[in-house]
Specification:
The longest helix is centred in the middle third of the chain and has 11 residues. This protein has 168 residues and is an alpha+beta fold. The strands form two sheets. A five-stranded mixed beta barrel has the order 2-7-8-10-9. A three-stranded antiparallel sheet has the order 4-5-6, with no helix packed on it. The protein has five helices and ten strands. Strand 4 and strand 5 form a beta hairpin. Pfam families: Rep_fac-A_C (PF08646). This is Replication factor A C-terminal domain-containing protein. InterPro entries: NA-bd_OB-fold, Rep_factor-A_C.
Length: 168
């Protein structure tokens, strides 16, 4: 069974759809933008804000020493029609990278004492062609500065070669 129940469209479709949509795009990861992790509340999974006493959840008001580490990776993807920024969050990112955010952060801290750049595990994503299941929400329609959520990815080389018609 083809896991791509939704249509596969080109990246330009992210900016040209006229209604909320969900579909697959086939694109190359060309860059990881900004920070790739955040401290999360263990109750609400929301971002924690650093305070003088640690980290606090603005929703449940719980205070933590560190909180949970979660992935929130904005990556730039490209194919022949356009480029786009997409967001890979915890479960999708962990499945793609193959290591938990907590473990990757520990590994990165040991490898790079200067904390510069991104971990090698993320560097290896650059130039990979994948299929991404993306969502265009109402507020993103015709908005070229949007970052689109990814709910799944597909790395199967057979499927990628079938849908790789848009890639450079």
């Amino acid at each position: 069974m083809d896991p791509l129940i939704l249509p596969v469209r080109n990246v330009d479709s992210l900016y040209t759809v006229n209604e909320e949509s969900e579909f697959w795009i086939c694109a190359i990861i060309v860059n990881c933008i900004g920070n790739w992790w955040y401290h999360a509340c263990s109750i609400r999974d929301s971002h924690l804000v650093e305070t003088g006493l640690g980290f606090e959840c603005s929703i449940c008001q719980q205070t933590y020493n560190n909180g949970l580490l979660r992935y929130k990776m904005q990556v730039e993807v490209i194919e022949s029609s356009a480029n786009a920024s997409i967001l890979l969050v915890d479960q999708v990112a962990e499945a793609l990278i193959g290591i938990s955010c907590h473990d990757l952060r520990l590994k990165f801290d040991k490898e790079r004492k200067d904390f510069q750049g991104i971990p090698d595990d993320l560097e290896r994503l650059i130039d990979r062609t994948l299929l991404f299941r993306v969502t265009v929400k109402q507020h993103q329609i015709h908005n070229e500065s949007s970052v689109f959520d990814v709910s799944n990815f597909e790395a199967d080389s057979t499927l990628i070669s079938q849908h790789n018609q848009y890639t450079r």
